[in-house]
Amino acid sequence: MRSVLRGALAASVLTAASATVQAADLPSMKSAPLPPPPPAFSWTGLYGGINIGYGFGDSSRETGGLGYISAGSLAPVTPLGSAWGASQDLHGVIGGGQVGYNHQVNPWLVLGLEADIQATDVESKAKSAVGVFDGNGAHLQSADSTKGVDWFGTVRGRVGFVLPSIPNLMIYGTGGFAYGQVIHNVGFADNFAAAGAGFLGGAVGHGYSDDTRTGWTAGGGVEWSPIPNWSVKAEYLYVDLGSTNANSVSLNGGTAAILGTTTPVFAATQNSPTRFHNVRVGLNWHFDPFAPGLVSRADGLSSLKEPPPPAFVDSYQPFQVRLKVGSVIPLDGHGTVYDQGIGHPALGSIGRLSGLTGANGVISGASTNTSTSIIPMLDVAYYLTKNWAIEAICCIAPHHIQGTGTIASDFARSWVFPPSLMAQYHFTNFGQFQPYLGVGANFTAFWGTRVNNDVWGIPFAPGSALAGLGLPGALATFQWATVAPSWGVVGQAGFDYMFNEHWGVNVDVKYIGIHPMVHATAVAFVPGAPALGPIFVPVKVSLPINPIVVSAGVTYRFGGGLLQPVLAKY
Q1: d(Cα 50, Cα 390) in Å, to the nearest integer?
Q2: Ranges of residues in the chain whose predicted pLDDT is under 70
Q3: Is the Cβ–Cβ distance between 132 and 141 less than 8 Å?
Q4: pTM of the entire structure?
């Protein structure tokens, strides 16, 4: 019996050992680690983008009035004044860019902050006319108002609401601070149809306001992210920049007349509110540099830990985008001013009659200055190789043209669009520090040019024709101006400091050749000679701007693996 038990036990041991050996030869049935689930969608992070839309007014009305200070040749009966109101029709295209930050507090609430800057051609015109009948007979008092918003910006908080079932769709409300440049020009006139005290004519004036106004904005919108890192939005904003006042006295009155009768002097004002609706669509690119990265572990899973900083790899990334802020500093900007007109039909050029215009047509003592400006810039480049690149540079800059000397006035303002195309050589043998040189061509277009209707004096030189009549000078204001396009060369030097193969910072200096011609028309009045009426003065300004542009910003390179260097074989 014992021998039977021993045999059975031995057989069991051998069977178990054999099964163990066979099992060791079989593949393991242990399941492979599951890949980490895709991260949940979140609005948290930084973003930047562009937008375009349309602005239109809220039916606000302009109000104004005119009253007399001196009766001139109409004394002792001082003309009556009047008050008026007129509807304005603010409207125009609006476009610009925005940057911001969102923080998703929980699955349904997003808090954020956004700043945007917009270029506009929003403009309104308002006309008023009031007939007056008094002891001097009938006269018609009128105001011709033009107002424009050159640009505006906002700084706003955002509160967004998200349905957990549709996490990539957000409805939000927004509101905050608004600011913008508002230009307001008004032409005032009082035209007398009947003679009183021997006077038959009109008194004219120009009111002007050019200020950066502040106010508030509120609105809302909807934003949708159809693919990772990108979103589209539709947005409504109401913008209130307060009111402007344009004031004037009559330009052709107040001086005892040597030629003709003395024009009466009025004081006039026009108040214009700047309130408008803005409907726009936009595109945003989202990124979160503060998000933790996924790091592989030894067990094949991933861990939400900050990865160690990778070694710098200078791989070929053919596409490059830079977002920058630049300062445009005109090197010259001092223009030469030419008198091009015959002036008064009977008397000839006001410049020559005043003794200011020489035989070559140059107005003596007249010049211009051009303002500096701070602007956003966008550079887009394609690398043919790691060293050679073609870059397109785009920016929009507002500029003032200031008259000096004998045309001392706030002459005009204009938007400048100077796209440039560059060929660049990048030095890549310094590691993360990558300097470059570039040369190219520039075409500069000007639009939205507005004269500022500032009033300036034309002194009459001793011995000139008008001074010989005993007239001291004339008052003038620019009524119209245009700036011709300009071609020029561009040179640049700069560097990128790359943190990795995609991200870096950029510093750049450019010289841009810009030398346009400005054509304008001024209208002059000689207070001591109202019988001359308005004297139109066509002028031309040769305006060398030739700015230095100093800029700094962020560089992003991408597209590696999609394309091979075009010139790699060379």
Answers
A1: 23
A2: 1-39, 193-201, 253-261, 289-313, 333, 341-360, 453, 461, 463-472, 530-532, 561-570
A3: yes
A4: 0.71
- Plot region of 300 (φ>0 → left; ψ -120 to 50 → alpha; else → beta): left
d(CA 326, CA 48): 18
How far is Cα 39 from Cα 424, in angstroms, rounded to an integer? 40
* C-beta of residue 347 within 8 angstroms of C-beta of residue 532: yes
The sign of the dihedral angle between the CA atoms of 347, 350, 352, 354 is positive
DSSP 406: T
- Does residue 231 sit in helix, strand or coil? strand
The reported pLDDT for the residue numbered 524 is 78
The pLDDT tens digits of the residues spanning 170-229 come to 999 999 999 998 988 888 888 876 544 445 567 888 888 878 899 999 999 999 999 888
Q: What angle do CA 35, 39, 44 make, to 5 degrees?
A: 160
As a whole number of angstroms, the distance between CA 348 and CA 535 comes to 9
- Name the token pair of 442: 């520039």
Q: By three-state DSSP, how is residue 99 classified?
A: strand
Distance between CA 489 and CA 513 in Å, rounded? 5
Q: For residues 226 and 162, what is the distance between their CA atoms, to the nearest angstrom? A: 15
In the chain, the amino acid numbered 325 is: V
What's the rounded Cα separation, in Å, for the pair 51 and 82? Answer: 44
Give the per-residue pLDDT at 492.
96
Which residue shows structure tokens 């949940």? 40
Helices (H) and strands (E) in the chain, counts: 2, 28
Euclidean distance between CA atoms 353 and 537, whole angstroms: 12
Phi–psi pair at 351, nearest 5 degrees = -65, -45
* pLDDT score recorded for residue 101: 94
Q: What is the 3-state secondary structure (H, E, C) of 347-395?
A: CECHHHHCCCECCCCEECCEEEEECCEEEEEEEEEEECCCCEEEEEEEE
From the list 209, 212, 234, the residue with the least C-alpha distance to 224 is: 234
What pLDDT is recorded for position 304?
41
Alpha-helical regions (H) of 255-329: none
Strands (E), 164-264: 166-192, 202-227, 230-249
Q: Which helix (H) or strand (E) holds 112?
A: strand 109-134
Rounded Cα–Cα distance for residues 90 and 208 (Å): 18
Specify whether the CB–CB gap between 210 and 264 falls below 8 A. Answer: no
**Beta 397-405 vs 409-417: how paired, if at all?**
antiparallel
